[in-house]
Amino acid sequence: MDATLFAPAAIPRLEMERAFFSRDVGYDGLFFAAITTTGIFCRPSCPAKKPLPENVVYYAAAADALFSGYRPCKRCAPLASASDPAWVGELVAEIERDPTRRIKEGELRERGLDPATVRRRFAARFGLSFNAFQRARRLAAAFEDIKDGSALDDVVLDHGFESYAGFREAFSKLFGSPPGAVARGKADFVRIAWLESALGPLVAGATDRGIALLEFSDRRMLEVQSKTLTRRLDLPVVPGRNALLDRLEAQLGEYFAGRRREFDLPIVEPGTPFQEKVWSALRTIPCGATWSYADLAKAIGEPKAVRAVARANGMNRVAILVPCHRVIGADGGLGGYGGGIWRKRVLLDLEAKAEVPR
């Protein structure tokens, strides 16, 4: 095979070869290198031992490499937020380790980071400025402590707030309830976490009652879906984790490894009565099978509502668990998919090969 066949036209092969073999991080996301002898594909900056030049094929997009049968490299994770610099993940991990600690602008500068750049990057990635992300995570941790029975005065001091009045104001603004309401069991919120997967980062959301959101982070409808979620559940959305999100991450890992065909997690996905009927029917499509939109319409007792069924299918906020990817066109074509047709193809192929539990 000609190694330049799938290469980006704007980047000469010799330039890609130089960037790949010199591990030039500046080219990450601009092209991908697939190694014919191992069957994996990598970012240009991959730290793994480099193959012989004649064993490398270059692709313009990760989807092209996937369609050609290559697997993403575990060392450089080419599907995992390739556009994000490493310091984004490092800051998030640091906040998760200790949500009560504040990382101020002076400390960012000491690390060689421009506070304005950090603010813009977090706003683009998470929908919150860096300071807002820290504050939301700090308040979410305080929320958990209050629910666990900690005294309000202790929570205010332990989570870095200078006064009870300031804490109460910030808490009420975020959660829509004063701190005392949490202690009485009258408040909840949606925790949002970013999970890595074989098909790229996923944004997952859950309340204590169930999974409320699971979308690929590059989906253009994500912002709309998140706002709809907030409106439907009448709950604030904050960064954080809970036991359900931990279980979701574990089960997704098993699913992408081909060892799980069904999920046993509760789902909280309020919609219109018609939407809920469609989403409920989606969950009855067996793993490894596909239905047409007409089949789905018949399943809910609305055989003439094919277009409305297709719209409801597209508004599903819980990907994979509510398997809208299993719905295809009447002619056998894949039809549409919010996460991208290439992901739909990979998901269906994965499910066709998944192990059957014994």
List the helices and strands and how they pair.
Blueprint: H1 13-21, E1 32-35, E2 40-42, E3 56-59, H2 62-67, E4 71-72, H3 86-97, H4 105-110, H5 115-126, H6 130-147, H7 152-158, H8 164-175, H9 179-183, E5 190-195, E6 202-206, E7 211-216, H10 222-233, E8 237-239, H11 243-256, H12 273-282, E9 291-292, H13 293-299, H14 306-314, E10 327-328, H15 341-353
Parallel strand pairs: 2-4, 5-8, 9-10
Antiparallel strand pairs: 1-2, 1-3, 5-6, 6-7
Helix pairs in contact: 13-14
Entry summary:
The radius of gyration is 23 Å and the shape is flat.
| Number of DSSP strand runs | 10
What is the typical, i.e. mean, pLDDT? 78
**Structural class by secondary-structure content:** alpha/beta
- Indicate the multimeric state: single chain
Q: Order of SSEs, N→C?
A: HEEEHEHHHHHHHEEEHEHHEHHEH
**How would you sum up the major sheet?**
4 strands, mixed
Counting DSSP H or I runs of 4 or more residues, the number of helices is 15
What is the level-2 CATH architecture name of the largest domain?
Answer: Orthogonal Bundle
Walkthrough of the structure:
With 358 residues, the chain is of the alpha/beta class. It has helices at 13-21, 62-67, 86-97, 105-110, 115-126, 130-147, 152-158, 164-175, 179-183, 222-233, 243-256, 273-282, 293-299, 306-314, 341-353; strands at 32-35, 40-42, 56-59, 71-72, 190-195, 202-206, 211-216, 237-239, 291-292, 327-328. The longest helix is centred in the middle third of the chain and has 18 residues, at 130-147. The model is unreliable at 1-9 (pLDDT under 50).
Give me some keywords for this one.
358 residues; DNA Methylphosphotriester Repair Domain; Arc Repressor Mutant, subunit A; four-stranded mixed beta sheet
